[in-house]
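Feature request, filed as a ticket because there's no other form

It would be nice if the structure record came with a short human-readable summary line next to the tokens. Right now we just get the raw output. Example of a typical job, pasted below so the devs can see what we mean:
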Amino acid sequence: MKRVSVRQLETFIQKTFEAVGIAEPEAGLIAELMVRADVQGSEGHGVFRLPQYIRRIKGGAVNLKPDIRVVREAAGMALVDGDNGMGHLVMRFATQTAIEKARQAGVAWVGVRRSNHAGPASLYATMPLEHDMIGLYLAVGNANHLPPWGGIDMLLSTNPLAIAVPSDEELPVVLDMATTVAAYGKVKTRAQRGEMMPEGWMMDREGKPLLDPRRAAEGFLLPIGGYKGYGLALLIGLLAGTLNGAAMGKDVVDFNADDTTATNTGHAIVAINVAAFQPVEEFKKSVDMLVHDIRSSRTLPGVDRVRLPGEGSYAARADRLENGIPLPMPLLDSLNQLAAELKVAPLA
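Raw output as currently delivered:
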């Protein structure tokens, strides 16, 4: 591992995007959001994805000058057309739209179509926290690696869910989960590092455990909670994809294998204005009390303490802001190879 500073990594990513034709302001916004993913420990969704994003841009699969806009709206909802722009820009626009609408309507649901991969789910679910709002994010994954329960045809993706709830003195409660036991990004990072997967992540088409991430194409991801995870992935896809006119099921484009086709990725972001339900400080203090009760609850033998969703990300954030973001050498090598191809300064 080699550690690089947040600023160093942001600059590198921004210059890389500028080298393939993205304007400086937009390149900076994308870089900031990508590095935020690495800072919080979402390693499969940060700079790890940069070479893939660049391949798709060079392949003509992404619109570098999109007209991101609201195409349908009412007081508490909107439908955003991303015009095939970079997912980070589309989802930033959609989240800001949801926050502004929730100020007046109390709750706002914003659906998104014609977007692209946008990084980790919690990146957008946590944005409403700064406005004393609860955030909820749903998306259709950018490749199908999950069959219907009992089947082997790849018709569903990892379809993530994230919910972020504000607190007062305690850390916000942030759930960020795929509907599969592991997100496919974790499979890819394991493959790059030459590491095996634990049993329970994937299965081959004969029902046997698949442990080698380099053989991922021979099998599929397993859903959380068996058939319940399959049902959750299906319904999230219907809400984030089908409802918005975005790709779902057999129409999902595998952006890992296809560098030329638009994905029509669907998302949904919901902002819930706490003040519409009760005084904000009362709610936050109630969250603090519940968090305290859970954290101080009794544990099973051998368990040091009870943890809450999001603690790991906040711990990673504190470490990485102070000490830099760790990059495995295989990833660093691939990034510097990309830098050489694009004639930008490499990461030291």
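Something like this underneath would help us a lot:
The mean pLDDT is 97.
The first helix runs from residue 6 to 19.
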